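Box S1 | Example of a co-folding query
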Amino acid sequence: MGEMMDTKWAKPQPVAGGVLDDEQVGSWRNRGFALVEGLLPDDLIERVRRDAESTFPEAGSAESQRITDFGSDGRLVFPSQSAAANELTLHPRLLAAVARLLGVETPELRLTQSDLWVKYGREGRSGGDRDNDDQRMHVDYPNHTLTHPPRWDQPEAVEIIVYLCDVEDCGGATAVVPRLGDDDPAYQWPIVATPGVAGLEWMNDRDSAEAYLEREAPGVARWRAEHLYPREVHARFRTGAVLLYRHDTWHRGTPLLPGTMRAVHNLAFRKAASEWVSTLHTGWAWAMYRRSLPMERLVARATVEQRCVLGFPAPGHPFWTPETVAAVGARYGPHGMDIEPYESSMR
Ligand SMILES: O=C(O)CCC(=O)C(=O)O
Ligand SMILES: [Fe+2]
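Box S1 (continued) | Returned holo structure for 2-oxoglutaric acid
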C-alpha cells in the first residue's frame, strides 16, 4: 500500500487534430517518452480491441493463467487476420508522428515490429525468473538492434505501445524513468547495467533479476536501486492512449490486477538507413499466398508512403525502369494498384 501511495503518474496528453505538438515531441526527444491520447481514431482502437479479445484466452480463464510471458504466438503479428490491427500499423497519423519524432519524412521510415500482446493478471509468479508480471527495469535495445543506440540526440528508432484497456480496470501501468538532461546519472553511456547485456544473464522478473545482480554485480544492483526504481513514473493509460518511447529509455511493465487481461499493440519503426535495427518478424513478403491474398491486396491498396514503410522502393528509386514498372504493375494491377506514381517518377 505504501508503494501504491508513492506511485508517481504520467497523464496522457491530448493530441489535437491527430498531430503531435511541440511539447509532445520535446517530451520524447528530451525525457525519452511521450504519453498521448487521441492520436488514433477511437473507432479503429475499438475494432482492434475487439479483435484482440476474440483472438486470445479470456481474462481469468484457466488457459490465461498459464501465460507468463508476452507475445501473441504470432497470431496478430503484422500482417495478421485483423484488418484493424493492420490498419493501425500503417495509420498515416501514426507514421506522421513517428516521422516527426525522428526528424525524417514518412518514406524514410521502416516498420520493424507490429504485434499485439496480451498480459494476464495472476496471483504469484509462476513464470520464475522469466515471469513478465513485475518486470525488472530495462531498456529494449538489446533485442532490437545488433549494436547500441547512437547518441541521445541522434535517435534512430521509435517504440510504441498502444493501450487497448484502462489502467483503472487492469492495472499493469508501464513505468518509465524520465531523462533529466545530459548529466542525468540514469542515462550515462554505455547503457549496460541491465540483465542480458555485457555478460549478465537475461531475466525478466524484477525480484529474480535484482537478487541475481546483487550476487553477480552488486555495484550494478546498487546503482539501479538508487537511480532507476525510485524515479519511475507510471503511465495512467486509458483505452487508445499511446506511449511513444525509445530503445534507450529505461522502463518496465508492472503487475496487472489478478484475473484481468491487458491487450496492447506493440510497434517499432526505424530510420531506413539503420539496417542494424532488426525487423522482429518474418519478412513481409512471406505473408503472400494466404487464402484470398490479403497481403497482395494490402500492398496494392496502400499509399505510396505506406509501401515505403514496408521497404517497397519509392518513386524515383533506381529500381524503377520501364520494365519493372510494367512487371510490378502486372503483378498488382489486378488488385487495384495504381502504378502511375512509379511510372511518372522515371521521367
Ligand atoms: O508491458 C509493458 O507495459 C512494458 C513491456 C516491456 O517493456 C517489455 O516487455 O519490454
Ligand atoms: Fe521493454
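The pocket of fe (ii) ion (ligand 2) is lined by residues 138, 140, 251 (CB under 6 Å). The mean pLDDT is 95.
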